[in-house]
Model the fold of this input.
Amino acid sequence: MNTSPSSLNSKTRNLCAGFPKKVVFCRKWLSPRKARDWLEKNSWRYGTQLVVYQEAAHKRIQVDFFPQTSKQKREFIREHGARVIELMPDVWWHPENPRARPLLFGKKLALVTTAQQYKFWEPRIPKRRIVIIGPGMAFGSGQHVTTAMCLRQLDKITSHLMRTVGDCKEVNCIDWGTGSGVLAISAKKLGLGKVLGVDVDPVAVRVAEENSKLNQVDIEYHVGDVVNFRVPFHAQLVFANLYSTLLCKAARNIQASVARGGFLVLSGIRWEQLAEVRARYCCLEEQICLRRAGWLCMVFKKPGVLHMLKC
Done:
């Protein structure tokens, strides 16, 4: 019997026939007070294209805008600063399906949304480490291209470290702006040593802690500002999936968290912001710059002390 993901998910694909290949929408989070003011000013403009939602356990309000054209999407982002989320049909149409296809990253990682999906796929993809990230308030389910690029680089860099270091337990990891904790949890699942996640949003930290318990991994989380927070250790692998303005503002602190010879992965960068980011991180050796769907992901390596003194 063929038990490949494509064959097992054929029913879901048939159910999705006639529906768009993916759903693209813009999401922003607001406090109740700001949400009232924002909706009074903007609800009449967007009408039924807006979906406003608040979970009972959380204070913040989720505002989703479903653009009908690319121009609407660009104008909404430029004016309101939302993030773009892209969902494939088997994520948004049948997320409760225990056989729904997992998101695959590189050769060793897979993401699912429920424990039932984990149990179904674990024996079928034994060479992959499966991470459970349920739909929650924090950004970072692996569906957005900026997170996806980071996960693929995590897979590649850990493979490189396994060949050079031998034991990834000696490799530490820091995840700036951890969100749902997906990068930190994935790093721990791949066998890295100490893993630290930092986010300015206490709700995101709480969600990340819950996701870590769900995945049965031990990760240290802190509520902190990426510009000023002092990490308790340097790491050989550091992620910062943030907005470009924050990446530039916090460049000194982010670079200081990388151990000598370590790797830094930056994501959340637009093409027009590339030059400014490169200028702020010029003391590091740029390894690669990837572009996908208008977003950039950059990988740097921290050189030795002599090179750093020249900067």
User: Anything to note?
Assistant: Residues 138 and 150 are 17 Å apart (CA to CA). The longest strand covers residues 258-270. Residues 145-164 form the longest helix (20 residues). The chain is about 35% helix and 25% strand.
